[in-house]
Amino acid sequence: MLPTSLSPVHSFSLYSPSLFPFSPFPSSSSSSSFSSSSVSLEPSSHRLCSLRLYNNAHLRITYKSNGLKLNCSLKEPLKVMISGAPASGKGTQCELIVRKFGLVHISTGDLLRAEVSSGTEIGNKAKEFMNAGRLVPDEVVTAMVTARLSREDAKENGWLLDGYPRSFNQAQSLQSLKIIPDVYIVLDVPDEILIDRCIGRRLDPVTGRIYHLKSFPPETEEIKARLITRPDDTEEKVKSRLEIYKQNADAISTTYSHIMKKVSIDGNHPKEVVFEVIDSILSQVQKDKETKMKLGKSNQSTSVQDNWRGIPTKLNNIPHSRDIRKYFYEDVLQATQRAINDGRTRLKVEINIPELNPEMDVYRIGTLMELVRSLALSFADDGKHVKVCVQGSMGEGALAGMPLQLAGTRKILEFMDWGEYEAMGTFINIGSIGGKEVDEQDDLFILVAPQNAVGNCIIDDLRAMTDAAGDRPVILINPRLKDLPASSGIMQTMGRDKRLEYASSFENCYFFRLLYYAGTQYPIMGALRMSYPYRYELYKRVDDPSGKEKYVILSTFPEKPSTDEVNDAFEGKPRNESKKALGFWGFLSGIF
Q1: Is residue 541 flagged as an active site residue?
Q2: What secondary structure letter does DSSP report for 150?
Q3: In terms of domains, do 265 and 370 share one?
Q4: Which HAMAP family does its entry note (predicted)?
Q5: Catalytic annotation on 90?
Q6: Do 196 and 341 share a domain, yes or no?
Q7: Residue 348 confidence (pLDDT) above 90
Q8: I want to staple 444 with a disulfide (CB 3.0 to 4.6 A). Which of 47, 59, 403, 473 is the partner?
């Protein structure tokens, strides 16, 4: 067997006359079949080899007596975990997931039965505990799951791990073995619905079929007469099982909070509607993996988002520690680099934490400049010529001036330490905003907090600059481009609609905002984060029993969520349920 590394490209030629004494293309003398994932060539007169390009972008070659098979799928296999309380509909959704995405369905219950019936070493160990009426130890179950995941079908097609891990220790064992999912789906169903589903279930002892007295009654009176209630489907036992499930789910959430996707289900949603939500989540995760593959990222990262460590805590304690500031600088940098590598040219970064919010305290402008310096130096290290731009004075006469939080910014930038390699003046230069600021040697532009002021609009200068920059990236850091009232004598070359349309042409490559109760800055209730090319993630801040705080993901969104969507997620309501922006979260209307 000969392993050969290949670059993750969309198309390539694979032909060596010494290795293959034939042309690997369709001809009259060779039959061929093509699909989106494989090419099969079968010349009859040569000893040929079978080639399979696995999803980790390695080529395996084995010889066969006849036939050449080239499987060149560039899709990354999905690795999915799904969790749900008893009667949440998890089994039904697993069937739909497998049918749509072709994943290998792995259930620990099925594995145990198969191992025991096969008489394997693991099965015999499990049988000893089961016969003694004891739970099978975690290490036995984990070994069984690991062995199943190591099979070729799971590696090639991806896997769906159903209902496992069920405890914190099991989750940590999988982590230590580098068994890490791309996404952790949780089916969130209200207790009253779960209880109703369980106590209404009936088992047909003849066929083994499960019925429900309300939602899925038996077809005939004869079947109805022989139905029985399973011993664990009483209300008392269901409530006990739910409590155990919740305790375990809370413990596991700390391990997978950064990739958790919660799917809220009410009693009126048919299985097809629930699956539409899951389908959307998995399709987005698949797209994200393919995007990373195009960008040449490692396929072995510990999460979908480049080893992202989760949201840091104690963000209301200012000044922030150097570690927290560095965390955000790196988070912004990674997202911006991904967007630029993907060909995006009109970008904006919006980050609102106390240490980076000059609107709350003008002295925070120094931290914002530190973020700008971090971005500029990183791009300069890659050999790019970066121009850092700060808007100058706008208006004339009594209207001349600039926003307070930008006063002195240019001087701060000039006196900052730009490293010992004399990057400033060579690879990094400081300028203003406008078409005349664009020089031929500039590769990209970082604009510091461009904003409109009453009576003056930065849009005209900004538009002139982006026109002159052409396809070179322009990155806005914390822009404020909302339309403000004009003053007499100040004319705009664009109408209001055009200005707003232009402002919206910049897409977020990074977004982070802390969420508070209305009219307060304490306590932090949650956060909204987006890092290109991933979805918007809504988090809730919670205090764990040890007194430490953590951020638990509530929901994800393909676009920036509205106030209503944020409200509904915090209140646990389905997304399609309309709601006015009132109450504690009403203030978000003015933010989003």
Answers
A1: no
A2: T
A3: no
A4: Adenylate_kinase_Adk (MF_00235)
A5: yes
A6: no
A7: yes
A8: 473
The 10s digit of each residue's pLDDT in 32-67 is 333 333 333 333 333 333 333 333 333 333 333 344
Q: What is the per-residue pLDDT for 495?
A: 65
Q: What is d(CA 219, CA 287) in angstroms, rounded to the nearest whole number?
A: 43
Q: 60, 155, 241, 346: which is the annotated catalytic residue? A: 241
pLDDT value for 266: 64
Q: Are residues 330 and 287 in the same domain?
A: no
479 lies in the same domain as 339: yes
Same domain, yes or no: 329 and 285 = no
| Residues 245 and 357 both lie in one domain | no
Catalytic site residue 230? yes
> Which residue among the candidates 201, 292, 410, 541 is catalytic per the annotation?
201
Total count of domains within the chain? 2
* pLDDT tens-digit series, residues 449-491: 888 776 677 888 899 999 999 999 999 998 888 765 554 444 4
CATH number at 157 reads 3.40.50.300
Among 279, 295, 311, which residue terminates a domain?
295
**pLDDT value for 295:** 55
Candidates 151, 230, 436, 482; catalytic one = 230
C-alpha span between 493 and 491 (Å, rounded): 7
The residue behind tokens 């009410």 is 266
The CATH number of whichever domain residue 560 belongs to comes to 3.40.50
What one-character DSSP code corresponds to residue 467? H
Pick 554 or 105 by higher pLDDT: 105
The pair phi, psi for residue 421, each rounded to 5°, is -105, 15
E runs forming strands in 305-427: 346-352, 386-389
Helix orientation angle between 90-101 and 271-294, rounded to the nearest 10 degrees: 40
Q: Is 129 a domain residue? A: yes
